[in-house]
Design brief:
Spore Coat Polysaccharide Biosynthesis Protein SpsA, Chain A; alpha/beta; 9 helices; 9-stranded mixed β-sheet; 11 strands; single chain
Length: 262
């Protein structure tokens, strides 16, 4: 098995069919498997997969176990040399997977590739980032992020002043689409399950870097990301609360936001 694709779904009925269809359409001839882990969706996502994609293995959890734990569940069933962690709101484009495999085969020092993500209208998403520090966190919080959306600290963090046309080593990238070399994980699971949602992607990239692997943004591979967002309405929304909890856990795990790698 060359590639295992792990998809975590949670109330993603609207997106799961285009995602799975794009895989089937553009990976013809490549030995791959799809593993979907459903975190107790209540919108009929599981039923849709059973009816329309009966050949896709589906792990159905009795409750929402969080993104990190669900990905690790899929990883335990995966047999691929390479692992694609894919959100259900992402559609792959022709040649992207093959290009990433070929690039990793020629660069054994790279543990994780981040493809170029674009919006449905083709515009660029700023999906790779610099590590956090206190200033970044300060300017990324409301109301400052709305008052100063183009502040130099935010632009630097989101890497907005780089053209995103050439491969480049980066600090970390969004967990919506991550292409992993299985050997880079060693005996570890993909994500630290202490993170229910958010910061598991930052943590993974930092772990890989500390172990000598490179994390690289690879714009030759392009995927469409509809950017399904968890509801963040209200002062005490579930999404905001989970983000805060994960931020605190990340800080106390590493004792700072961007620990020195040497």
């Amino acid at each position: 098995m060359v590639l295992s694709i792990i998809i975590v779904s949670y109330n993603t009925r609207e997106f799961i069919s285009p995602c799975l269809n794009s895989i089937r359409k553009h990976l013809d001839g490549l030995p791959y498997e799809i593993i979907v882990v459903d975190n107790h969706s209540v919108d009929g996502t599981s039923r849709l997969i059973h009816e329309n994609f009966p050949d896709v293995p589906l792990i159905e959890n009795g409750k929402n176990l969080g993104f990190a734990r669900a990905v690790n569940e899929g990883y335990k069933k995966a047999g691929g040399k390479y692992l694609l962690i894919l959100n259900p709101d992402v559609e792959i484009l022709p040649g992207s997977i093959e290009k990433m495999i070929h690039f990793l085969e020629g660069h054994p020092e790279i543990g994780l590739l981040l493809p170029k993500l674009v919006n449905p209208d083709g515009s660029l998403q700023f999906s790779c980032r610099t590590f956090y520090d206190f200033l970044i966190l300060f300017f990324r919080r409301p109301p400052l992020v709305k008052v100063f959306p183009n502040h130099r600290i935010i632009r630097k963090h989101l890497m907005m002043d780089w053209d995103h046309r050439e491969p480049r080593e980066v600090d970390w990238g969004l967990g919506a689409c991550m292409f992993l070399r299985r050997d880079a994980l060693g005996n570890q699971e993909i994500f630290d399950e202490r993170f229910f949602l958010y910061f598991e992607d930052v943590d993974l990239c930092l772990r890989l870097k500390k172990e000598g692997w490179k994390v690289v943004y690879y714009p030759e591979a392009v995927m469409i990301h509809s950017h399904l967002r968890h509801s963040a309405k209200g002062v005490f929304s579930r999404a905001k609360w989970e983000h805060l909890k994960s931020l605190i856990k990340f800080y106390f795990k590493h004792r700072r936001f961007s620990p020195p790698l040497s």
